[in-house]
């Protein structure tokens, strides 16, 4: 994982890659400023969320719990005050995560249109002469990402009660975001670089080297502004990993051909 990180950061010395990185940075700022927070705020405060049966049930349960705790002599008020502080802190953290995800999603969409150029820049800088040819089409990729996003949304809706459990809600919300982020990057870069059979051998979540590297890169999106360049870093890191696997695959194929001829 460390080697993958170092190679990714090393590629930032390329003026071409830096220019490509600036595109989602500038465009995402404009889009977020003009559209993002308004649309996102409308969604969060719409009846779809506020009138959701599970949300209403949780609110009723919380109100009942507050009445029960408040009725405890002497310490009831103190307990409610402590719980109120804890809820405020958790809500603030979740709000921060939601804002970070919003910025990241815009940057991912913009970066998705530049994947070919980024992959070619990484190849030219680190693997000159290496021939690559991916598989599938843009339509196929969009459809797969769309289906996966629907699955993540359904999982989120089913697990809404978990958002009311301190600490667990933060970890779970981070994990949902990371799963979608990783799937999108791996699919996008893999379809550009690898033949389908090779891609299917190396796209699993259990491939811990790229998965852990992507988790570290994804975590950078929690820092202000970093979400605007995180997708570019993720594409570069995944491109390195897949180019390594493509090189191994081509070398093995060449050896097999030689043995066959003998």
Automatic annotation (TrEMBL):
The record ties this protein, via InterPro entries, to: CysZ/EI24 (IPR059112)
Which membrane topology describes this protein?
Answer: Multi-pass membrane protein
- Lineage start: Bacteria, Pseudomonadati, Pseudomonadota, Gammaproteobacteria, Thiotrichales
Q: What is this protein called?
A: EI24 domain-containing protein
Query: Main site of residence?
Result: membrane
Identify one Pfam family in the record. EI24
The alphabetical list of record keywords is: Membrane, Transmembrane, Transmembrane helix
Q: Which superkingdom heads the taxonomic lineage of this protein's source?
A: Bacteria
Localisation per UniProt entry: Membrane
Q: Which organism is it from?
A: Thiomicrorhabdus marina
Membrane spanning stretches: 20-49, 70-94, 100-119, 145-165, 171-194, 215-237
């Amino acid at each position: 994982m460390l080697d993958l990180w170092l190679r990714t950061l090393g590629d930032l010395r390329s003026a071409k890659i830096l220019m490509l990185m600036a595109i989602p940075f500038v465009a995402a700022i404009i889009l977020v400023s003009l559209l993002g927070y308004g649309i996102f705020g409308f969604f969060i405060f719409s009846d779809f969320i506020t009138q959701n049966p599970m949300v209403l049930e949780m609110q009723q349960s919380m109100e009942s719990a507050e009445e029960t705790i408040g009725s405890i002599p002497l310490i009831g008020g103190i307990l409610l005050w402590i719980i109120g502080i804890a809820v405020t802190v958790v809500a603030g953290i979740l709000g921060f995560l939601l804002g970070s995800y919003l910025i990241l999603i815009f940057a991912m969409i913009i970066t998705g249109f530049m994947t070919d150029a980024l992959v070619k820049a990484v190849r030219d800088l680190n693997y000159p002469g290496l021939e690559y040819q991916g598989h599938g089409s843009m339509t196929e990729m969009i459809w797969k990402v769309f289906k996966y996003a629907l699955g993540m949304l359904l999982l989120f809706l089913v697990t809404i009660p978990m958002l009311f459990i301190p600490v667990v809600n933060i970890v779970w919300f981070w994990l949902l975001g990371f799963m979608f982020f990783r799937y999108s990057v791996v699919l996008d870069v893999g379809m550009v670089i690898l033949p389908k059979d090779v891609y299917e051998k190396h796209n699993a979540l259990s491939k811990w080297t790229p998965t852990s590297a992507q988790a570290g890169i994804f975590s950078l999106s929690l820092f202000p502004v970093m979400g605007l360049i995180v997708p570019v870093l993720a594409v570069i890191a995944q491109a390195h990993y897949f180019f390594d696997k493509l090189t191994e695959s081509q070398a093995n194929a060449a050896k097999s051909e030689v043995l066959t001829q003998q």
